[in-house]
Structure formats: C-alpha cells, structure tokens
Queue: 2 jobs
Job 1
Amino acid sequence: MLAVKSRKIAFIGAGNVSWHLAQALATTGHQIISVYSRTMAGSKALAYRLPDAQPTTSLDLHQTEAEIVLIAIPDAALATVAEQIKVKPGTVVAHTSGSQPLSMLGNIAGASTGVFYPLQTFSKVKPIDLAQVPILVEATHEHTQLELEELALSISHRVLPVDSAARQQLHLAAVFACNFTNHLLGISQQLLQEAGLPTELLLPLIKETIAKAAQQNPYTVQTGPAIRHDANVIQAHLQMLQRHPDLQALYQNLTVSIQETGKKGHSAGTTI
Amino acid sequence: MLAVKSRKIAFIGAGNVSWHLAQALATTGHQIISVYSRTMAGSKALAYRLPDAQPTTSLDLHQTEAEIVLIAIPDAALATVAEQIKVKPGTVVAHTSGSQPLSMLGNIAGASTGVFYPLQTFSKVKPIDLAQVPILVEATHEHTQLELEELALSISHRVLPVDSAARQQLHLAAVFACNFTNHLLGISQQLLQEAGLPTELLLPLIKETIAKAAQQNPYTVQTGPAIRHDANVIQAHLQMLQRHPDLQALYQNLTVSIQETGKKGHSAGTTI
C-alpha cells in the first residue's frame, strides 16, 4: 500500500463497514478522531477499539479537527444525515454506499463531497483483508478525488475512479453475481438436504465454476441441460420440482434465459 | 488414498471424464488395458498416454482380461452402447454419468452393473486433483458396490454410496449451484462490460459469497434489495434493465423467489 500523509478522519455510523474501514485506516497510520452513532453504546463499541477516537451522538463536527468525514450508514438514512451534518469549511465528506449516487449528499455547507465505496460484504465477526478489496472513488472536485484516492490507496491495492452511473450498474451486476447466486446456492443446499446428501458435496464443483468464470467469459463455458437443449433431462427436473412450484418457475426461467443467450452466438460446453 | 489390489480396467469413451479417470487410475497402480472410442484416432489419443492400454473401436471385450469396464460417454449414447457391449462373465460394468440411473445399463449378459460418478466438471486442458473430487458409487450387487467403492478410494478421499434417485436430485442441485450460477456470472460480466468496468471487479465479492455459503445456510445470510424489500432499488434496477427484457424478467423472478423464501422464516442480512 502507498504510504500517505496521516489524515484526521471522523466516521458517521458504527456498523459493519465503519468497523472494518476505521480499524484498517487507524492501523495504516490515520487518526480516527470520532465515531458517530445514534446511540452512545453503538459509537463506543467501535470508538473504544481505536486509539484516538471519541464516541459521539452529534452530527455537528464543525468544532472538530476532522479533515475527512466518512459516512457509512443504511442507504435510507443517507439523505437525512447529509442534511443534518455540520462540518468546517474545506472538509471532505464522502459516503460509502454502492447503490447511492454522489448527489445523494446534496449540498453540505463548506464541504466537498465524494464517494468512498469498498466493494465487499462486511460482517463484524469475519476479518477481511482490505488490501484485496477494490475501493471505488468519486468526487465533485478533482482535488477531492485525489484526496480520496490517496486515502483508499493507503489501505487497498485496488483503487478505481468510478462515477455514479457506472457504480449503479456495478451494484446491479453484484446483485446478479452475489445476491442471486447466493439464493441459487441456498436452493441447491435445500435440494441436497431433501435427498439426504451432505450440503458440502457440491462445493468443489461450485469452486470450479467460479474459477472458470474468472478466466473466461461464463457465457462461452456454459454447461448443462439448458444449453444442450436436453429436453428429457429438463422435463425430468421440472417433474422433480413439482412440490416446489416457485423453484419450478425459476428453473424454467433460467433455462430459457440460458438458451436465449446461447442463440446470441455463445458456444456451449458439454459436461454436467 | 487407500492402497488397493491392482485391477484390469477397460474404458469405453475417450472424452474428458475418461481422460482424467484413466490417467489417475493408471498412476495409482491399476492397469488400463484398453480404451474404446468410435474412431481409432480418438482412442489412440488417450491409450497412448497409458502404459498398458490398447486403442480399440470394438465393444466386444469378452476376449479381453478386463475385470472392470468404465463407460464414460455422452448420456444419449449410453443405452445403445450398453446393448452392444460384450464382456466375459463376472465383469463389473459401470457408467460414470450423474444424470442417468443405474437401470440405464439394462441387462448386460454376464455383467454386474454399477455407477462410478466423479462429481466434477472436466476439461482435458485443466489438471484436476481427483483426490478432492467426491466419487458417488452405486451397484446392483453388494459385492460390486464394494469393488467399485474400493476402486474409487484408490483415487479419491471422498467416496459415497448414493442411489439413482438421490443422484438425480444431486444433479438437479448441481444445475442450480453450477449451471445457473455460471449464467448469472455471465450476466454480471455483461453488465460490467456495458458500464466499461473490468469484469474481474466482482471476483472478491463472489468468492466471499461462496465462502459464506460453505459455512452457513445461504438462505440465512441472504443480502441485497430483494430480501430487504427495498422497492426503490428494485425499481431502479428494473429500469436499468429496460434494454434487456429477458434479464428484467429474470431479475423479477429471482427477487420474488428470494422474498418467498424469506417469508418461510429465514433471517435476512443487511449488506450490498
């Protein structure tokens, strides 16, 4: 990581994202001066893990030394908090949301706004190597962009300037690749359980699927009954799903989508 | 792996599955005596990589020393090949298909039939550590079951007896976990490309999704706008997919399926 000037940073929010970002930034030499949460208990839980941080329940930061304010709160609360926050002139205020545009911060008096979005799911109990996590940066002004990129480079190898429109499309892509994929893995485990099989049985195959997708366009290595137009197997599978009409519908939709994509000229694989 | 008695094995088929199984079995001390393919070129390509194997285009093995015959050919050809194959009495004949029942082999005169199914996708160019690949075994007779399990244990740490019904359900589960997941990863890469973003950007997030699914029931760690019933984000995403009506439909179906599953009492996560 890049060695950079130590910055004085205030965190708004003490949830999973703040938890990991604040500790990583403190470790790399920045000074986290305060952690805001709606409750004192919430802010203390994180602030007391950081050497220089005061817990607070006030959004008025304009008497503090904060140079950069990072907002990591639920999307729905973002507009309200942005309206209430007070900072001293020249402060950089950035939110950390993947799905919200930069404009969501509105006009915070005296502030230069930006986005500082770490592309990863966080949970407090699981340590994450932030160095490998892409951080996507956007700002209203060029100098703020550079400041946020420099901050990002102090904790991650992978920093990209990405505007709000592209970030929104990225979020949509993540819904397909992660949220929807997770749901399919859930269905798969449910089916294994119903057959009395261990749920980890498919893990090597799943890992292989992901590894392949990392190397080649997944469309070109698609395998299975759908892309083979194997009507017998597809019918048998739909029959097996009779007790789960919702899964039956999903199976049919995904099969059609794979076949439609196949028509558009991507080649088919042969296994599974 | 278990050190076992060296067996004389004939392979029917010289495709990806035979390619990996035959070489692994030869390496561990078994004798691959012949490789059948419809063309001599096909059978030679594999046979010449094995110390003791004759290439052949004949399914009449009843003058050979084969004790075990492993059939690894496309599902559609299985019934026809099973009708034509000739073996000497007492030979074990097993197919390697995940989706076909044991009964697909019919009655091969003198043979005791079984299934020897390695649960992995194979491609000739990519080496695979078979030791980590589960091998699912089924047989008409107890002694054949033991023979095939012993053979499997000589190349894999993970051998399970699984009957045809459970194996078919496993195959269905694999379609969801691998084929359908691969398609979603393809969609995700397409969306990233459209936004001018690097396709590998989501890889850390995807790996984290898989790692989580390996540790917990995916239903209980589901995240995203669907499980949060975040109507604003869902509407925005559907709007963004307007140019892709098929993806729009798929997004809607998966969202409903996640929400239906959520109703059945699985708890929701908060990120992405």
Job 2
Amino acid sequence: MQKISVAIIGWGNVGRGCKRAIAESSDLYLAGVVRRPASLAKHDPSLENTHVVDDITKLDKVDVALLCIPSREVPERIKEYQNLGICTVDSFDEHDRIPGLKKELDIIAKSKKVVSIFATGWDPGTDSGIRAIMKIASITGHTTTTFGGKKGGRSMGHTAAVKAIEGVKDAVALTLANGRGKQKRQVYVELLPGFDADVIEQAIKSDAYFKNDPTEVKFVKNINKYNTLHHEGEVERTGMQVNQIYTAEGNNPEWTANIMVSCIRACISSRDRGEYGTYTFIERPLIDYLPGKTLDEKLEGY
Amino acid sequence: MQKISVAIIGWGNVGRGCKRAIAESSDLYLAGVVRRPASLAKHDPSLENTHVVDDITKLDKVDVALLCIPSREVPERIKEYQNLGICTVDSFDEHDRIPGLKKELDIIAKSKKVVSIFATGWDPGTDSGIRAIMKIASITGHTTTTFGGKKGGRSMGHTAAVKAIEGVKDAVALTLANGRGKQKRQVYVELLPGFDADVIEQAIKSDAYFKNDPTEVKFVKNINKYNTLHHEGEVERTGMQVNQIYTAEGNNPEWTANIMVSCIRACISSRDRGEYGTYTFIERPLIDYLPGKTLDEKLEGY
C-alpha cells in the first residue's frame, strides 16, 4: 500500500504534534514542512532531517496539507491549496462562520476534485461528533459543553488571537469553567515596550473570541510562569431517558494534532471514492478516520 | 417534506420505546406494528389506535422496518425485509459475528437497493462511535468498555437469551462492573414447574452470552422483585497525550429505541443518495442520523 504524502503548514505546537502523530502512523509519511521564511529551520533542532520549504509547490507530490496556522488565516489558505489540487485538514474554530464557509469551500473542492476536512480538531471537531452521538442516543434532551474545568486550560484560538494584537510580545489565554456550559477567560500578556496596557486590554475584550465571556487580562513580566499546554472539556446531555457525560483532558496542541492526522485518512478514502468536497467532521463516516487496511481491521473493537 | 414510513417489528420494551421516539420525531410516522399473532394486540392498551398486523406486507408502503426482536432472530429477518425492498435497523449484539454478517447482508442490500443499519443500539452502536472518536483523538492509547457500574444494569441480549431457554418462565440478566473493562453477570430466573434448576443453570453458563464472564444464577419465586430496566456503561481511553471518559446511564430499552429511531434517517438519506448497502453505525456519517431539513439545521451546535 502506498503511503499518504503529507505536508505540515506552520511550525507551532500543533505542527510539531502533527509530526509526532505522523511518525506513529505507518500509512502516512511527512513530505515536508512549509514555513515562511524556510531559513528559520536552520536554527530549529526539531526540524532536523525534515524537508523545510517556504512554498508547498517546492515539495514532491503532496496528498494532504495540514494547516497548523492561526484559525483566521485558514479560509484563504484552504482555497490556495484546493486550487493546487491538494486536500486539506484544518482546525478553524469560529463556530458561527462554519456553515457558510463550508458551503463556499465545498464548491471549490468539488471543482478541483479534492477533499477538505474543515473545522476539525477538538472543538469544533471530535466534540461535535460526541454531541451528535449524544443526540442520536437521546432524541430529547439538553446538551452543554464546558471548557477548562476548575484549573483552566490553554485555548489555542484565543491565545493566537491575543498574540496577533500589535504590542503583544507573548500571551496565553486560559479558559475556566464558569458553571455548566459557561466559561470565563484569564489572559496573561507580556507587553512590548512602549505599548499602552489599557488599549491592549480593550482590544482583547472587544475581540469576537472574548466579548461574550467574562474576561480578565493581566499584564506580566514573563509569560513562562503562567504558560500551560493543558486543556480539558466536558460535554453533557441530560435527557428524559438517558444521561451522558464525556470528559477529556490532555495536551491541547497534541490532542488537536492527533485529530488532524486522523482526518488525513478521511480525505484520502473520500477522494478514492470520488466523493470530493469540503466536509465538517460529522459529514464523513467515523470508520474513514480509523487506521487499518481492511474492513475487518477497521471494525476491530466495534 | 414527505414523512418516512416506519414499521416496528416486535412489541417488547424496545418496540414500545420506538413508538414513543417516533412520536417525538416530526419527520417520521408509524405505519404499524408487526406482531405474531396480531390478535394479541386486542388485549394490549399500549397498541390502541395502532395498526397491528402479523405480516409487514399487510401494511401500506414501509420505508424502514425496526427489528425489535431477539438478537439471534435478527440476521434472518433482515434478509426477509431486504428481499422485500424494505430498509432495516436492528440491534444485533454478537460482536464477533458482526464483520462476517455485515458483508453477507451488504450484498443483499446492494442487489435489492435498500439500506440497513446493522448491529446498532447502545453497544455495539453508539458506544462503537464513541470508541472510534476516542481513537481519532488519541492515536496511541488503550480503550476499555465497562458495563453496569456498581449496582448493575439489565442486559437485554443476555436477558432474552435466558428467557429463550426451555423451562424458564421469566428472567432478568444483570451485568455489573468487575474492574476496568471486565464484568460479571447476575441472572435471576423464575422456573416453570417440573424443570430442573441445575440443568437450566448449566444451559445459561455455557451460553455464548455468559461463558466468558463470572456468572451467578439465582432461582427466585417472583422475578418482579429483581427486575429493572436501568443500565449504565463507561468507555475509557487512556493515551500518551489525551485521556477520555464517556459515561452513560438510563433506561436500557428506551435508550436502544432512541438510537434505532435515529438510524431511520441514515437509512433514508443513504438510500436517497443511491448508497445502498448494509452498514454498521460507524460506516455512515453522524450527520445522517440527525434531524433537520437543511445542512444549517443539521450543523446547529456543531
């Protein structure tokens, strides 16, 4: 069986996690990492023995590009790769924009005969699958999702959004549970010299990622003291006849990377069946994400 | 939108639960109940205002038949309905036989242009979906499923298997957790007069449903004292970077009925796309099981 050729786009925590997850998967191989500028790779020991380029067209044939870049840059990059005939997996996380973008990107994918798994990762993504299963098992009921538990966890989309603000040297945005289905945010920010803390606090609090939740911003001298990669979440459905709870905790970027790497298989199996399109996680059969050469292998543990 | 026409085959606890779940679903309607002999319905208030027949061909057009009958009778009945051009949903639960039967029934479904969702319900079924998602989110790791918790719960397949033994008047088979991924069985049996308790205990313990687990059989005067419809289960995956637990508890036949009724939608959406076949729960996209007329409605809460 020919291995699936994968490119990692971006070299943050998620990109590094994807490299590890690809190495654990015998059906996949890493064609290279796309990073701008590629010359940065010379100083990065984690990229030793890895082909690093600044443009995906400089790599040999790539089946699937994993977009390990800030969520807000994702839609344009999906289009770029779809137009090159390359399948994509991303972890776009703005829930409200998902149905509209999915339809727009679906048209391109179908015309270019590629498959994209869109807006996947932990939530949206596998949590969306959990919510669907809970609804299937309990037709009437009420589902809530709560992030961060008591100690809080690192939200990657939120952290990236703060880091993108001019004047922010480094930041971490934590999410803490604030009652069932509710959360609050704690943001630690290290400022660049000469920037106004009040202006930056206002920019954070008015950002779409934060404006709907209680948000506390603290300016600190060194972010490392407050940093973490941990996150946790709970999906709960209470119904007339069935009650269900799913809890998960772990290293957030590694978790996202595992899911993105599993999605590579759903791209290729869908492409092989000629089912081109841009799909959310719940629009492809779960079996398509699982490793295994035969149906029997994939159904193991069913 | 035309409603999907459904027939319930069998009138035990699961069949009754399906009737309730269909009534909660505005896209479905109950064409009738198939029960042998149909004349029993005259004495059953739960079947008032319901069309009851002893043969499905006596009902008007049926899109999907829900097989609410003992698991061991399921494979033959699926074939019967597939050959009549009717889609089926069942809760066949013998894990080892699933891959082989799925392939056999897939050939018939494709030739008759129908869709069957095979071996669904709680476990196998939605739990299989949970196990798949957990593996997607944590590529390396170890998954265990534990049934019944501390107080135990009613296993429907096990109970039906005991009730099928000659000499058993009534029975309930409870499953209790016995350590992570392990369980033990407690079986309460009400005997018919003139039957030998030792022979029946031996028949239970040598049955495939029981032979691999510690099983205690108690003979009682009145089963009602020991009866329950409650069950619970836990799926757990421990991984290098992510830990996940799913727990669920509820009324076991209602729970199964909810899932079977959700599967009706996956039959019809697959049939409408011309994707005929016999599929396990994880072989159809989760979105196909959800209610909603449009993609936006189905993606709500994604």
